[in-house]
Amino acid sequence: MVKVNGEPLDLAGMRLSDYLSSASYSLSFIAVEKNGTIVPRSQYDSCILADGDSVEIVSFVGGG
Fold first, then answer.
1. CB-neighbour burial class of residue 17 (10 A; exposed 0-12, middle 13-18, buried 19+)
2. Rounded to an integer, what distance in angstroms lies between the CA atom of residue 57 and that of residue 63?
3. How confident is the model at residue 55 (pLDDT cuts 50, 70, 90)?
4. CATH 3.40.50.2300: does it fit domain 2-59?
């Protein structure tokens, strides 16, 4: 199981980019942290989620 924003999900073995796409995240407006380390956008395709990983996804919201 992989924890995403505190929620356990069965994502082990999935590429981070595939998860973000399936969850409809807009890549232009998010930052991703995996196990306490920021994942650069250029590494989303090569980042494979593993059992026990903890992922935090933060969305940026504009306004005024």
1. middle
2. 20
3. very high
4. no
